[in-house]
Write a structure and sequence with these properties.
This protein is α+β, with helices and mostly antiparallel strands. Among the domains are: about 110 residues, Beta Barrel (conserved putative lor/sdh protein from methanococcus maripaludis s2 fold), CATH 2.40.420; about 60 residues, RNA polymerase II/Efflux pump adaptor protein, barrel-sandwich hybrid domain (OB fold (Dihydrolipoamide Acetyltransferase, E2P), Beta Barrel), CATH 2.40.50; about 80 residues, Helix hairpin bin (Helix Hairpins). The protein is built from three helices and 20 strands. The protein has a six-stranded antiparallel β-barrel with strand order 2-11-14-13-12-15. Strands 3-10-8-5 form a four-stranded antiparallel β-sheet, with no helix packed on it. It is elongated, with a radius of gyration of 42 Å.
């Protein structure tokens, strides 16, 4: 009986020892480190934003006088020259004001002539001691007032003539009419502000993109930096530009501060991206001419006139129009990317290596290793396990199977890779970026971008 007890006890102890060995082995095998190699390559730091395209110089044309619009000689897409008449305001009121001012000038001239003759007569009497000094002074004052009234009347005539000239609207620059804001018969009032009638883009071959950059990124933007953007009309085409202006005026919307950044870009021919009108084929393909409709017109219905390129009502026959030969249009939405920094042929590591902290998985001998999250709280389970809230200037390598911190100096980062430098770094060095632990912590730790990362 005692022998059987000894045998059973020995078997139990052997089973327990085997289980302990198996558990110990499994414990060592449960943490599989995810690693990446230090390599050489380019790191491009970018800022993305959304902006609006406009002509580089866009001039609103308004009227400085009130009245009824009696004629318009330009419309959307009209090509105009500087000084060309493009509109007319009813001049009746202003012509009447000019005539009244001219009549006032004539009265002032007559009054001055009479005052001059009167002064000469009284001056002769004064020389003969037939008139007192006070009477002569009064005549001199009347002469000077008549001279002042004459100058005022001349100014009134000039002002009335100027206002009459404002009734004729002229193009201030060469360009394309991109907006017409009134119709013939509409009354415009210029009492408190100048109402706009047209908007003229001076040169559509040069465009600008105005984008709002967040205050967190504006410090990295400089004049002269390269910029790229796309528009929805040509999603596969990337246009190139350059930062030309960083405006210091802050724009505050719902307590969010942004700054306007202007990028200049050269417009390109649209024929490279869009087939010719009526061709229905790829760019460069020849369009087949359409045959004229055979047979007489239907009874009681007039034949439809041939349509020109534009049906705008205020363009005189034969006037030149812009037919959209360039790809970029004013008002398009641009998805912009500004290259703020770039390094080539530099040592780089995945950005995850600078955010990974193995203290969440194994005890570290280095007491300086930050085993706690910012704020003094130890990183518990969840999406932040094994990651720090901010990038650290250190990476982790394996020495004798244990993590060891290697101080580095971080440089330019594009979100995926970060430039690093420091002692002990070399191309091909393996660094820790995470763990492959499918048994204890499946999908607990998250990436810095917020998605789940498997540990």
């Amino acid at each position: 009986m005692k022998r059987k007890m000894w045998v059973v006890s020995a078997l139990v102890l052997a089973a327990a020892a085997g289980a302990a060995v198996l558990v110990a082995r499994r414990g060592k095998e449960e943490i599989h480190w995810r690693t990446a190699r230090v390599d050489r390559g380019s790191v491009v730091q970018r800022i993305t934003a959304t902006g609006t395209l406009n002509a580089l110089i866009q001039v609103p044309v308004g009227t400085q006088v009130s009245g009824v619009v009696t004629a318009l000689h330009a419309d959307f897409n009209s090509l105009v020259k500087k000084g060309q008449v493009i509109g007319q305001i009813d001049p009746t009121t202003w012509l009447t004001n000019l005539k009244d001012a001219q009549a006032g000038l004539q009265r002032a001239e007559a009054t001055l002539a009479n005052a001059q003759a009167d002064f000469r007569r009284n001056q002769a009497l004064f020389e003969n001691q037939l008139l007192s000094q006070a009477d002569l002074d009064s005549k001199d004052l009347a002469l000077k007032m008549a001279q002042g009234n004459l100058e005022s009347a001349r100014a009134a005539v000039a002002n009335a003539r100027t206002n009459l000239g404002y009734c004729t609207l002229k193009a201030p620059v060469d360009g394309v009419v991109v907006a017409r804001l009134v119709d013939v018969g509409q009354t415009v009032a210029a009492s408190f502000s100048t109402p706009n009638v047209f908007t003229i883009a001076q040169d559509l071959s040069r465009m600008k993109v105005q984008a709002a950059i967040d205050e967190a990124d504006i410090g990295q933007v400089r004049v002269g930096q390269r910029a790229f953007f796309t528009v929805d009309s040509y999603p596969e085409k990337q246009f190139r530009g350059q930062v030309s202006e960083v405006q210091l005026n802050p724009v505050i919307t719902n307590n969010v501060v942004t700054y306007n950044v202007v990028m200049e870009v050269a417009n390109e021919p649209r024929a490279a991206y869009v087939p010719a009108a009526g061709s229905g084929a790829a760019p460069g393909a020849e369009a087949r001419p359409r045959k004229a409709a055979a047979g007489p017109a239907r009874p009681g219905r007039a034949a439809a006139p041939a349509l020109e390129y534009t049906t705008a009502r205020y363009i005189p026959v034969g006037s030149p129009v812009y037919k959209g030969e360039l790809a970029l249009f004013p008002g398009m939405t641009a998805n912009c990317t500004i290259v703020t920094n770039r390094t080539d042929d530099t040592l780089r590591v995945p950005s995850a290596a600078l955010r990974f902290n193995p203290a969440a998985f194994v005890p570290l001998e280095d007491k300086k290793a930050p085993a706690a999250a910012p704020g003094g709280q130890r990183p518990a389970g969840g999406a932040a396990r094994g990651l720090v809230a901010r990038r650290e200037d250190r990476i982790w390598i394996l020495v004798d199977g244990k993590p060891k911190a290697l101080p580095v100096k971080a440089g330019v980062s594009d979100g995926s890779f970060t430039e690093v430098s420091g002692d002990g770094l070399g191309e091909g060095l393996e660094v820790l970026t995470g763990v492959e632990d499918f048994k204890k912590a499946p999908a607990q730790a998250g990436s810095p971008l917020g998605g789940g990362m498997r540990h």
